[in-house]
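Quick note —
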Amino acid sequence: MASPRETPRTFTGECEHTLDTQRRVAIPTRWRSKEGGDVFFMLPGRHGALQLIPEEVFADLLEKARKTSFADPSASLALARLGAMAQECRCDKQGRIPVPSRLLEYAKLDDSVVMVGALTTIQIWSPERWKEFRMADDAVLDEIQRIGEKSSGSLADLLRDKL
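Predicted structure written out below.
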């Protein structure tokens, strides 16, 4: 694995893309580094989406995993499950990454996908499933207000309370 970036990227917005005949999808240019050679780790995500984790964010997870004893039976099983499901994806010169068939099946992806910026990661959804879970435009303002009104707790805790 190449050395992680100093400053993690931010992923915002959404866009529809098509899977090519080799089951590859192109990462939008604005989400790729100018230097090229982007590496992501793809995992099954919540609600039937795929989670695409950039190398620099995945490095944080690996650091925590390295502090876990492989002799701990439940931790060992959790690490094995995570390792078995994780797929390292390196962007080619056009910014495309392959989507393994088992993850295509998991997310019920056919020829088109919606790529969603999830601030620290990218999510890949089927268009139909994303329509189910996409937040109404005015609800976004409600979420921003909730976050702004609560000064304590992590963002994850605030969002978890809502879901």
